[in-house]
Amino acid sequence: MNDSIRIEHLYKSFKGRKNHTVKAVDDLSFVVKKGELFAFLGVNGAGKSTTISILCGTLQKDSGSVIVEGDNIDKTRRYVEKLGVVFQNSVLDGALSVEDNLRYRAALYGIEGEAFKTRLAELSELLSFGDILDRTVSKLSGGQKRRIDIARALLHRPEILILDEPTTGLDPQTRKLLWDVVRDLRERDNLTVFLTTHYMEEAADADYVVILDSGRIAAKGTPLELKTQYARDAITLYHVNEAEIAALGLPYTPLRDGYRIEIAATADATALITKHPHLFVDYEIVKGKMDDVFLNVTGKTLKGDDSK
Amino acid sequence: MTFLSLTKRNCKMFFKDKGIFFTSLITPLILLVLYATFLANVYRDSFTSVMPEGIALEESLVNGLVGGQLLSSLLAVCTVTVAFCANMLMVADKVSGAANDFLVTPVKRSVLALSYYVATAISTLIICFVALGAGLIYLSSVGWYLSFGDVLALILDVFLLSMFGTALSSVINYFLTSQGQISAVGSIVSAGYGFICGAYMPISSFSEGLQKVISFLPGTYGTSLLRNHAIGGVFREMEAIGLPEIVIDSLRDSIDCNLYFFDHKVATPVMYLILAAALFVTLSAYILLHIFAKKKKG
Known about the structure:
The complex is a heterodimer of chains A (308) and B (298).
Chain A: E1 3-15, E2 21-33, E3 37-41, H1 48-56, E4 63-68, E5 71-72, E6 83-86, H2 98-107, H3 113-126, H4 142-154, E7 160-164, H5 172-189, E8 192-197, H6 200-204, E9 208-213, E10 216-221, H7 223-230, E11 233-238, H8 242-246, E12 252-254, E13 258-263, H9 266-275, E14 282-286, H10 290-298
Parallel strand pairs in A: 3-8, 3-9, 6-7, 7-8
Antiparallel strand pairs in A: 1-2, 1-4, 4-5, 9-10, 11-13, 11-14, 12-13
Helix pairs in contact in A: 7-10
Chain B: H1 2-16, H2 18-50, H3 59-86, H4 89-96, H5 98-103, H6 109-142, H7 148-174, H8 179-196, H9 208-214, H10 218-240, H11 245-254, E1 260-261, E2 264-265, H12 268-291
Antiparallel strand pairs in B: 1-2
Helix pairs in contact in B: 1-6, 2-3, 2-6, 3-6, 3-7, 3-8, 3-10, 6-7, 6-12, 7-10, 7-12, 10-12
């Protein structure tokens, strides 16, 4: 079995104001492969958190099927042991110490005594929190709390790590640490990572991306496929004059030290180079960005506060 | 082990919140001081006014009776209201998202429910036993007539009522989803429970219809048990000094040591049975609520 998560025809609606039905998730189908970094993109209210809640078994779906590591979530709860979840808002007990938080969590999975000490040592080294074990959680910084959240989700060595907006509001150092840890775990343990994010650079590093818009899948594919299909490439030419660029008959934008030409695909760049080699002395070709993909697919832009 | 660990976590969360713990702890003590200051004279006057003319009792005997009445009222109220104060974590976990997070672990819902219950029961018992200790010290200073058996029976009463109060608060709090709701319920219970369990005013002073309604509430029998054990020694002393049986029995009636269910006098073992059955039913209902809880619909 190569699928970690298989969701088919998932529907979920809520009663809104004046009994108006809001379709939070509308015929959602996708597959997350084992060991994959899967990114879920969408603005607030797109249906990302609803899908995660259904996936975690805390929210009832209207219809459709959800299979996690071969287990149908309607028939068994065995699959929850294979999930590690980092919620958008920390669910650590603020009044307790870091060690107590992790100890009581580990006990829920039967990890106690020496087994807990060993796992705690591993995780504190991996996530660099050995020096704050006896600190009260409420007194930690956002970045420190996030590291403990992740350690908490990894205590029982899950097969799937669900990260719901994990890096929102984090400093660059903690953000880098988080992604380094995720990369290590994927390489070492073939961990599947299900990520929701509004940071395009994080989505661009994913193996597969699903863009949600109003509960429906607006686009899906690898970042390369999405960029090829939904974003235009650009060529920047240096040390040329405007008349030569205008003669190409393509839309262009003057820059301080050159001109940027938008092209539909990389193949068009090859054709231009072959036809006008004298223009291509100093140049660069840039693939379309995920921001462009998102904008073209949904007609919306993702901002820093679009955290759901 | 999961159960023990969860219970430990819940207890630690309660005791780490010094505000809640100390407020819960000093409330019964403040109540004891207020009762002794403001209600003792009222109780004393109402007691002496029903005594037949020509019968004079020792001051310490009167004080023992009044003190026992105060202590039993205090404990009857505290065992339930403290449980409501202490039973906040279940709702706090819903608010923080921790309750949802527990559902993404292998822990069974029944284990989770029991861990909240036992942790609240432990906190409630600690506070109520402190209140009992303070009350016994008060009684020893005004007029001590309790036997060792009475003290043991009081401990059993406080234990059973605290367990019942915790189960009752657990069932009610199960349906609450915010700190505001829990504060409102706590206030209502604190204000009203003392009346319906017969702690503030004897049930015998209520109208007949109301008495019948109240006789269906298990807390009433808990109050009566506490009364019997806190004042039993005073009645034994009254018998010893030759006070007529009819006078003692009318006194028992007037302060709810004797309880009647549709004119049938309820014996002490039956009161224990009612309280134990009420505890069993509420606790079972609470656990079943957790077990049969469906996933959130939205």
